[in-house]
Amino acid sequence: MHAFDVLGDPVRRRILELLADGERSSGEVSAVIRAEFGISQPAVSQHLKVLRDSGFAVVRAEGTRRLYAVDSGPLREIDAWLDRFRRYWTPHLDALATEIARGKRARRPDRSDSGSEP
Prior knowledge:
The protein has 118 residues and is mainly alpha-helical. It has six helices and three strands.
């Protein structure tokens, strides 16, 4: 399965977001996903399997629990692929950062108008 096919699903993206915060048990992941998406536990397990089989997640056994974590390899590959496109948005983001900084400076109260001397 192609990386963008894997990440194209909102449930799998949300699972990766959960795992990005640290290792989680399949039960923890399932509880959050079931509450947010209203899908069954077997459906969550299938999404975890897709993430595992496609290399985005790794699993380890700890007794009867299965602990999942992000495998950053495929994410680094996507980042490398996206690198050729960064030139399209980086200047815009830099310009946005400049405008935000200007806005913050413009909103700062002028300390000389406060009436108190330092």
